[in-house]
Amino acid sequence: MSKDVSSGGQNWAYSEKVKDHFFHPRNFMEKDSAAGEFDAVGQVGSLACGDIMTMWLKIDAAERIVDLKWRTFGCASAIAATSVFSEMVLRDNLTIDQAIKISPQDIMEALGGLPARKVHCSVLADKAFRQALNNYFRSRGEHERVLTDGSRIIDPDLNITEQEVINAIHQGAKSLADIQARLKVGVGRPEVKAEIEKIIEKHRNKEDQPFCPFQKN
Asked: 114 pLDDT exceeds 60?
């Protein structure tokens, strides 16, 4: 492990692999994609937290991930973790089911480790990937395949979780209409609208509090 210096003057120990992926990120998306170029896109994070991750996926008929691009406003560790994750997925032509099995721990091992206070950065790539997959499943009407990761399900028809509603709020949704425009939650189940309103009321006044996708709310 070699030394690097983060903002704030603290010394962090970064591996050469981390520095390589930070200075030479693989599969980074510099410009927005054209309409229809990718099959799914997912985004997690918020500016309050400082990390926003967007990920695009192209998936073939055999459910192999044939392309994966990403963009983040985040730290060196977030960039390196997502870069190496994209390389792991594309290098071995992984299927959806195979790629899902890559854990944040696998990402950290591939990088030769991360400083303890930067471990959450490997989770950011994982969560953006899962959000992109969930959008892919929903676009195909395969709601039973949505990855809920243990979060409480708000809309059982669409398998939309409380965490997804919270994410939408912290990314700018301020009303039930905003939430439904993003997630379609409650469209076929009017009875869940009251629950969504409660979640909005609880979380929309927390703009001054840092929100991170890897923290529980």
From this structure: yes
